[in-house]
Each structure stands twice: as C-alpha cells, then as structure tokens.
Amino acid sequence: MYTFIAGIILLIIGYFTYGKFVEKMFGVNENRSTPAYTNQDGVDYLPMNSRKNSLIQLLNIAGVGPIFGPIMGALYGPVAFLWIVFGCIFAGAVHDYLTGMISIRNRGAHLPELAGKFLGKVMKHVVNAFAILLLVLVGTVFVTSPAALLHDLMGGWSTMGLIVGAIFLYYIFATLLPIDKIIGRFYPIFGALLLISAIGIGISLVVTGAPIPELSLTNLHPDNAPIFPLLFLTISCGALSGFHATQTPIISRTTQAEKQGRKIFYGMMIAEGVIAMIWAAAAMSLFNGSTGLNELIANGGAAAVVSEASTLMLGAVGGTLAVIGVIVLPITSGDTAFRSARMIIADYVSFSQKKIVNRLWIAVPLFAISFALTKIDFELLWRYFSWANQSTAVIALFVGAMYLYIAKKNYWIPLIPGMFMLMATTTYILNAPIGFGIELSTSYVGAAIISAILIALFFYAAKKNRANSIPLEDDVSGWNKVA
C-alpha cells in the first residue's frame, strides 16, 4: 500500500517540480500566436479553452494502454510501479510536452513533418509510413477491445459484429466532422467519467485495505521474468507512449496560448500515470497474486480483469459505470487515431481538408483497412502495436533532443530516455518471435551496437544542423495573439 500511495504522490510532485523545470527550460513565449489562430480553418484548426483541451488530450492519449498495459505489467510485481512513476515523469510527460510545444511552434505539424525537418528528409517518409501503420493498428485495437467489453457488459445478447459496426460508424462521424462538433462537446464529459471511475477504484483500494504488494529488494527482479526489455514495452501508455506523439498535434492546433502547454501536455500525461498506477495496483492485489491474475488474463484477457476488479471494488452499479468509463477510453482514442492518420496523410500530400469530400477520400480507405485487420488475432496485433508504439516514442524523443540541441538548450532531458528506449525497442525486435527471434543475451549485444551507431549519427546530424542554423519555428510575425 505504501509503495502505491508514494507513487501517486511522486507523480503529483513531478508535475509541479520537473514539469515546471522542463517548461522553463523550453521557454514559453506568451506573446506568440498559436496555430489555432494563424491557421484557423474551422475544421482542425480552431481555438478551444485549456480545460476543454486538457480533457480532450487525456482521452486522446488514454486508450486501453494505461489500463490493459499496467494490468499485464502487474504480472512483474511492484517493479511495475517504478516504471510507471519515473517513466511518466522523466520520459512520457517530457515526450508529450515537447511534441506538443514543438508542434505549436511549427503550424501544428505532425510527427512525420517534424522528423523530416529535424532528423532529415528521409526520416519524414519513414516516420510518415510508420505513424500511419501505428495509427491504423491503434484504431483497430481500439475497436476490438471496447467491443469485447460492451459484449460482456450486455451479457452477450448483441453480436460482436454489430458492436464493431456501431463503433466504426461513430469513428466515421468523429473523424470527418470539425473537431468542435463531437470531440469538443462530448469529450470533456467522457473525461470526467474516466477520472471519476479511476479515482473511485483507487479510493476503494485504499479504504478496503487491499493487499497491494510493497516494492522490496527481493521482488525487484521477478524470477524467470526479465524485466528488460519486456516491461518497458508492456506498459507504454501511463509511462511512455509514442502514440501520444500522433495525438498531441491535434490539440496543438486548438491551443490558445503556449503557457497552457504544461497543463495540457505534461499534466495530462501525469493524470494518465495516476490511472495506470490504480489499475496496476488493482491487478496486483485482487486476484491472489500473479498466479490468479495470470489465470484470469488467460481465460478472458485484460478485459476480464477490468470487469472483475470494477465489480469487486465498486459493486454492481458502480462497477458498471467504471466499465463504461474504460469502454470510453479506447473509443475516444480510436477516433482520434483515425483523425490523426487523416491529417498526417493530408499534410504529406498537401491535400486541403476544408471540404468533407476531401476528408472522405482519405478516411474511407483507412477504415476499410482497419476493418480487415479486426479479423486478425488481437494478441498478435497488440504485440506489433507495442513495438511500433515505443519505436515511435524513440523517434519523438530524438526530435525533441534535436530541437533543443539546435536551440542550445538542455537536450539531455529527452535524449537520455530516448537512448534507453532505443536500446529497449531494438533488443525486443531482435529477440521477439515477431521479430528476429535471436537469443536474449545476443540481442543485448546487437542492440547495444545498433544503438551506439544511431546515437553517433544523431550527434553528427545535430552538429551539422546547428552549424546550418536550421529554423526552429515558423514565422508568425504580423499575427496578433488573440486569447
């Protein structure tokens, strides 16, 4: 219990201390106009207040990741708390803040465009393909997982196919309509439901004295379960997630002022870390240890853990509301995943999105591909998503490091977690059956060599970019800030 409570307290302290430090290091310009005004188009670019943007950002980034990931990560024991807390403060929130703020400084640009500007033109094409793949995977995963929860919640009386179709129908409207029509109106309500349900379970865990295990030297490294690299890919959302780099530009295009960035980007990642801590604690304490948890996951997946934990902690009515909150999470991230994919493709081919028919030309093929992917085994999709997700986080952290290097600021803040995750993702793909299937010890060596080469190339490019004075931001002179 003490480890869990201390972790929550550290996350909150991290927002007010390290978050403030990162904000000061970046250097907020309160007089600079944001893309919400300079590029206003009434569809994707338009100003919304910070409360609304914060709750939308939370729902955008918090899919099933901060719930399903920590539930799976709970199998490693209390060491999962360490990654959630320190990963969130020093990696995930830094990743989200820098991605959002650099996007604001560059017309609300998405990650592929930022990668092209700061890491080279080749990287723009690579990251564009990678980001679209990730977003389609996310959109697909976030169709099947809430569909399964809804199917269970309704007692199985409705077919999975009908539920999947209904979710896709909602995605079409949310992806195509202006951001203030559905997302801007309903997400703040959904965000409140998400927070209330998570906090309710967290309070119940404390009040009932649930046997949440404490971190100790003996359980720091679970037997027969090497935590590196698997733990750092299993728990992504809630600690560090590249998916967020595809979502923050949505809100960078609706942010009224740069001074709101810490609350919207850094703060909502901390909120997601709190949600992750609560679900990891519930998974560790309610099912008679890792053996019972493993059996429940094997029989019904992480969704079964969500349903069981919600009912145990909050009763039938409260548990149902909590499950609804969890269902909302992936749906409200799935629609913005498709929205981001549409925007990235439109930016890449310079295709205006003011007319709805133009949006349809991009969105319809994306939905068709995603629907076909729903026929593939969920667990296989999740494994590919985990690797693609954290690889995207590495790219985003290196973009942030390059920006700060050119600006002659503290680039180590994003570069250190970026180097760590580069080693983790490379080790994983070398070792995993979905990758090269190389023995783990050999994968460590191979990953170290590959990481060293890529880091050396980063510094070579960084020195060259600084010497060439690569522009850090778009010129918005002549625009009056309206906020």
UniProtKB/TrEMBL annotation:
Domain CstA N-terminal, first and last residues per copy: 3-152, 163-287, 291-427
A single GO BP: cellular response to starvation
Membrane topology annotation: Multi-pass membrane protein
InterPro entries: CstA (IPR051605), CstA_N (IPR003706)
Chain ranges passing through the membrane: 6-22, 55-75, 81-104, 125-149, 155-174, 186-207, 227-243, 264-287, 312-332, 360-378, 384-406, 418-438, 444-462
Entry GO terms, CC: plasma membrane
Protein family (similarity comment): Belongs to the peptide transporter carbon starvation (CstA) (TC 2.A.114) family.
Protein name per Swiss-Prot or TrEMBL: Carbon starvation protein A
Organism: Salinibacillus xinjiangensis
